[in-house]
Fold:
Amino acid sequence: MVTDEQELIQRLARGDRSAFRELVETHKKKIYFLALDMVGNPADAEDVSQEVFLRVFRSFKTFKQDARLGAWIYRITYNASIDHLRKRAVTPEPMADEALEAGFQSHAQIAEPQASLDPAVAAERGLLRDRIEKALRNVSPREKAVFLLRHYEDLSLKEIAESLELTVGSVKSYLFRAVRKLRTELVPCRTDMNPEASHD
Amino acid sequence: MIDCEEYRERMIEALYGELGEDDKASFDAHLGSCASCAAEFKAMTATLALLDKRERPDPGPAFWDGYWDRLSKRLDKEISPAPSGRPARERLSAIFNVFPKWAYPLAGAAALVVVGILIGRTVLSRPAPPLQKAQQPPALTAPGVQQASAPVLRARNYIDRSKLIILALVNYDPESQDAYGLDLPRQKQLSRELVNEASGLKNDLKDPAQKRLRELVSDLETILIQIANLESANDLSAVEFVKQGAESRGIMFKINLAEMGPDGKGGRRAPQVKPSII
Structure:
């Protein structure tokens, strides 16, 4: 039985442009957000995410058809992000401030418009956001990618290993190091800003 | 005896609910009896809960609606033949696109070799003033001497083998080459062997005239240690670090100089004469 993904892969292998569009529509948000987390600002994230799809289009003939398409695309995203960071050769700026200045709507504003109007809540969220982004900037790109794929993209350890061409043991190790660093960075947040955590 | 390290290895799986039933029962039992692991697990759980609150700015519906159109334009630019009235930059780019991507680093390396030869000839073949000629640094004024000493021969061999490994990595382009094409395990093995040889070789290159050769062996050793410690050819930042290390040390240039210089393949061996102090 041919699955939807296998059928899509076959159409992509034939150079079917409508299949490519399907692929883009299916994966664009995940790829954009992963790129955003890796490179740190929306303009670069769009550029990197489009570069990812162009690489997919250019090099689809190298895709091993028994592999998972999603894993392959995540790998390309990681590589494209690293290439971008290397070219830029500077530490990414905090993304959220730039995004907000550019007039983007945050998930929070969409989900909880009432809360976002309260200046105290907004300030607290802003502080939390800044600390989390700062903490994430202090983990290495590899640790960060592993953490993002596990925590925000909900990939299993095995899927992450496949995506980043690592062993499951290495993935566990990178993830453990990432969470440990984040824990250290976020200790003040857990106690100052999340009182229930300190009462556990 | 309870091994905390073993349980900490399982902590990540426990945090993300990836432990099997038996492992989870064993893990929970350990947490019940080990305050240190329990505290760490609790702190990590709290950290992840905090990270759940993170919000990523969504660019909004207009951005997503236009995403395909913007991508499509870039795609069209790539796949459609450029019109004859296209800008010079695009025409130039089209000309260069005739060659495969891997050809550029290779051409770059070849250009480096040529530049190295030219500079080497200019610097090393400059005739010395008559008064200094007798005391000229040995390698530059020892025509006709064809046999190199044993350490120098070993150094040449060392440099040749190192060069092959470093060139393979410098020319490795992860976008156009399969990581398996690099055969990293083999390169790492060879690097380790060379690193093991390096200290003995450096000790044998005692002659002051061999100072440059000794320094080159030392530089190569540093790069080879980095290669031997690479985890994966796909660890692009690590590969790039090694490449930059080789570049910043001018490794290929030094190799080229060594190959045609006093102790190199140019065949002019350094006689055992003290260098001039003039």
